[in-house]
Amino acid sequence: MARLRRPLAAFSLVAILGLLAAACGGSTASSGTASASASAPAATASASTSGSTSAAAANRPVRVGMDVDAGTLDPRLMTDTTAYRVTALIYDGLVLLDDKLQPQPDLATSWDAPNPTTYVFHLRQGVKFQDGTPLTADDVVYTYTTITDPALKSPMRALYAPIKSVVAIDPNTVQFNLSKPYAPLLQYLDLGIVPKHIASTDATSLAQHPVGTGPFTFQSWAKNSKIELVANKDYWGGAPTVPGVEIDVIPDNSARAAALEAGNVDLIMSPMSSDDITRLQGESSRITATTMAGLGETFFTMNTKDPILSDVRVRQAVAHLIDQQTIITQIYKGVDKPAVSILLPSWTAYTDTIKQPAYDPAAATQLLQQAGWTKGSSGWAKGGQPLKLVLQTHTEDPNRVQTIEFLQNQFQGFGIQATVKTSDFASFLADLLAGRYQFGMLGGLNWINPDRGLYNSFHTGGTNFSFYSNPQVDQLLDDARSSSDAAQQTKDYQQFATILSQDVPYEVLSYQGYQAFVGNSLQGYVVNPRGNLRSLAQAHLTGS
Asked: pTM score, two decimals?
């Protein structure tokens, strides 16, 4: 195992591509016909802060340190974690997901499924947008009609593709008509409902000046610095117990940790540097630390349209050159767990018997030779052309930068001419989407179920960075999302994972862990692996 220098920089961004989920709770809705009601959102808890609220309440907003600015505040167009977390405060969805990721009432007080392709939602009455305009079924119809319209170019469109139409039965009733049964639909209806009267007249307005029905109202946004929200005193679920929420963009991990220690922010969360995690865990007298399994993965994507990496044998060889154990142990300090396949351990379809290529340089040599490459004094070549790879990631995450640099050294030592290209995340993402890359490192978050994590990333036509297309994989993903048979879904996803481990458009480095650190002046915030901030509406601040 190679020895590595310790990470010097410390800031990280997790891209979210399989998007998104919300946290909160209520009563469990049964399958088929579901009915529940809630006068106010309830907090869900896998872990939470605690303590007396007898101290004087602080008359200031809750300050949350985030690693990256939001790209948009229109929930239909989100592609990053900050946008997800902020929009969950401004907007409400038809449902909320509880701590078991089950849908509970939000804007919909109840729902019925008279048949497998029809859902009828009954809306909460008396709800108003933050500009005073009443919410109606037309707003729900508009939200889902536009997100499924290719013209909007929503990155989440594939999640809602089975929706054939959305119809307003009356001002308080909405019917979803599906083209086929769609098992995960309810889990995806936490998407914020947008106001038709604003979005239909100015398509870009909500991206910069969001208006929702949620517990907090947008106030201001200083790009790459701060987003300010104030309590919605007229919120249908009751006015928040804090004056507002301030999102402070602090890209550097160590600077974000220092801000928490200094009392300049009240809450920070993954991504975090391992040294900061260890130090903050030792400050229990003033900081509450929570560590849990995350809902995402860190992975390497390979462009299957690239002239070199279009050969599956070359992709398999490259995967065999990734020293996963060294990277996890020495760069990630064991915070994340080594992955064996694309299947997350939290999914019922998970099995450790499906294995992607493991570190094995000898196997890599054999595969390259089978693909017609020969190794000479200058390294591997074919037809007079050297084997060259450009390894890319984003500068916001030092662990990923160091990993790419480590792989560059490993690949070069093996005889591959490897170079490194790093850029800010927005530029990196643009390169991935346009196919201007060979080998990239990033992550996926909020994979609340296999469909959310896999369909959009691997189905032909989705947000498929690897440009991977396999009709058998498409069919398995389609079958799994249409089936209500859990055993059949597990079989489909395991067969999918087996194929993916052979075709290797992705090599998964790790199953992500999730950490949250809360200053003891913030009480009542419910920590959850999605990093959802909704429970801040019921939180309290003590002290000055």
From this structure: 0.81
